[in-house]
Each structure stands twice: as structure tokens, then as C-alpha cells.
Design goal:
- Chain A is mostly helical and about 120 residues long.
- Chain A has a single domain, classed as Arc Repressor Mutant, subunit A.
- Helix content of chain A is about 55%, strand content about 10%.
- Chain A is built from four helices and three strands.
- In chain A, α1 packs across α4 and α2 crosses α3.
- Chains A and B meet through α1, α3 and α4 of A and α1, α3 and α4 of B.
- Chain B binds a DNA duplex (30 and 30 nucleotides) through α3.
Chain lengths: ~120, ~120
DNA sequence: TACTGCTATATGATTTAATCATATAATAAG
DNA sequence: CTTATTATATGATTAAATCATATAGCAGTA
């Protein structure tokens, strides 16, 4: 039986938004603090709307725990103190591993979409 | 501090293996039962090794609950009874929504990999 | 001064998909 | 009669994603 609220699949599924590799790439491009990264992430296209700030801050701390990034407080400049993150050598290495995974993923997606298109065309003809 | 067992990122992260859209596409191509789908999924390229049978059977039941697929028992033919799944009209519709999401995802991945390559080249030169 | 909005970080609770570990059973092959 | 293969299934655990919320500095303005 279908439930009242349709909560199955692409809309609600805990989707992998590639937060970790995205953050690593952005931090390789340029050291930044969490708040900056929120807007940068949005432009990367893995999020439909806004990325969740809580998720981003948590992920950054988590990555620091593993020495993928490191941070220090920045008190200079206006506004509240910022925690500036930079990527580490280990982080760059780790990103490389991510990229290998994402290349496969990209290829698999391409194949998937191709198959879908083919099937779609067949059923339309 | 990094933990003893490095459990961060691309190796261990609960990755989205696109189980739901994969199953829907495969079932659109051809009705099948769970055990068949295990091998078909492997060929789709979203899994590094073997897909987890438990996950597949659960997902199929879950999708049936939402009328995306329907099943019936097949007792004819050798071997233990099989539950043969077919996609429904709702399922095909739902797959279409998935595809829209995956097209965006595909584009975002392409952009990501492009940016990585650029940065990688810069740092090598 | 008080209020509002923006910048900035953070954490606790909840949800749920993914994973891990098993259990069951029919049949085919040796 | 034992083992491997085919086939489905479920309970427990883990961890990521999400939701809700708290804190606080500073800028502009009414």
C-alpha cells in the first residue's frame, strides 16, 4: 500500500551531495571559511537549494579530525571571528582518491542516461 | 586526531549507489527477479564490488509498497520460487523524475572533474 | 537606544539509507 | 548425503543527512 505522503526516491532519499570532495576541491582552489563555502557549494550544482550550514560545519570539523584540512581562527577584519580552513597534503591526496571514484561514477551515470534515452526513444516510436 | 582506522571519505562513506533508479531502469528494460538484478546491477557500474543482496530485496519491497513495481511468485521452472518484478506506470513516471535529477548530477560531476583537472594541471606545471 | 538583518559558527535530536550478519529453503551436481 | 548454487528475507547496527535551534558580533536605521 502506498503511504499517504509519498516519501520514496529521488525527492527524499538521502542523496549523496559529494560534500566531502566538493569542500576539498574548493579548499584546494583557495583557503576559505565555512560561511564562504556555503555559497561556493551552492554554485557547484550538487545541491538543489541551499546546503545545510550544520552539515558543512560538521563535515569540516570531521575532515580536520582526519588531517584532511586544518583551520585557525581569524579575528582580523570586521564581523565575528572566522575559522579559516586550508587543505593539507593528505587532503589533496584524499581528493585524488575521490576523483578516481567520481570518474567511475560519472561514466556509470553517462551509461545510465544513455540507456534510459534509448529505451525512451524505443517506447515513443 | 586521526583515528586508528581511517574511516573517512570515499571508501567508507555511505555512498549513494543509485539503487532505486538502477532497478527501475532494469525493470523497464525487462521484468526480472531479485537474484537476476544482482548481476545486472553489478554491470551498471555504480558498485565497486557486489551489490548487497539484502539491500536489493529490501529496496524492491519498498518500491512495491509505493506501487513503483509489482511482483508475483513464479513457481514454474527449476530452482526455488522466484518473485518476478515488473515496473508500473507510476514507476516509469518516477524514473523520469530520477533521470532529471541524475542529469543535473551528471553535469555537476562533469564540472567538478573539469575543475579538478584544471587545478591539477596548474600545480603540475 | 532598541531593533532588525546579516555574518559566522556550532550542537543536539531525529531520520533513514546503507551495511553487516544471518537464516531459510529448494534444487542440482558430485 | 554432502556441498554448491539459486533465491529470498530479516534483524541489528552504523553513520550520514537532515531538522531544529542556539549563540554572538557587527552594521544600519528609526
Amino acid at each position: 500500500m502506498p503511504r499517504k505522503n509519498f516519501i520514496c526516491g529521488c525527492y527524499t532519499e538521502r542523496r549523496n551531495r559529494y560534500l566531502e570532495p566538493s569542500l576539498l576541491l574548493l579548499l584546494w582552489q583557495k583557503p576559505a571559511h565555512g560561511y564562504d563555502l556555503l555559497t561556493s557549494l551552492e554554485k557547484m550544482g550538487f545541491h538543489e537549494s541551499h546546503p545545510d550550514p550544520g552539515a558543512v560545519y560538521k563535515k569540516l570539523r570531521h575532515m580536520e579530525e582526519f588531517n584532511l584540512v586544518k583551520s585557525h581562527w581569524e579575528t582580523t577584519g570586521g564581523g565575528p571571528a572566522k575559522r579559516l580552513y586550508r587543505i593539507t597534503k593528505l587532503g589533496r591526496n584524499h581528493l585524488k582518491n575521490w576523483v578516481a571514484v567520481l570518474q567511475k561514477r560519472h561514466a556509470a551515470l553517462e551509461n545510465f542516461l544513455q540507456q534510459y534515452t534509448t529505451l525512451s526513444d524505443e517506447n515513443q516510436a
